[in-house]
Amino acid sequence: MNREKAERYLKTGLFGSALTLTGDLLIGAAKFPDGAGMIEGYFAAALAMPEWRPVLGGLIGFAGICLEFPALMTIAPLIRENMPGSSRFYQLAMHVYLAFGGGAVHLSCGVLM
Question: What is the enclosing helix (H) or strand (E) of 11?
Fold first, then answer.
């Protein structure tokens, strides 16, 4: 992998991480009512939240995680030079992150909220 391609992937990953943060904030940023505990505050915030916020936040977060993936895989060749076994484990972990982080977490948050 040449330097220009790696830089492009890393810039795409930074943009994807900003999208993921935006999606997470759309889903989870809510003001709790005064005197509410943790669980009661989350339920009250979820009931008061408009329907478009968790759905849009889930979709934006899913797209952000998909854009983060090439940048995360750019790190694997750097690890491979010194630790080949760790590089394979890292690649497997990043594929699991792509599967569960994007699809299982963000989209289900949009549906469940």
Answer: helix 3-28
pLDDT of 53-102, one tens digit each?
888 888 888 888 889 889 988 988 888 888 888 888 999 988 888 888 76
Give the domain extent around 22: 3-112
C-alpha pair distances (Å), 38 with each of 3, 10, 19, 44? 47, 37, 27, 10
3-state DSSP call for residue 22?
helix
SS (H, E, C) 23-82: HHHHHHCCCCCCCCCHHHHHHHHHHHCCCHHHHHHHHHHHHHHHHHHHHHHHCHHHHHCC
Count of the separate structural domains present in the chain:
1
- Whole-prediction pTM value? 0.75
Whole-angstrom distance, CA of residue 67 vs CA of residue 12: 6
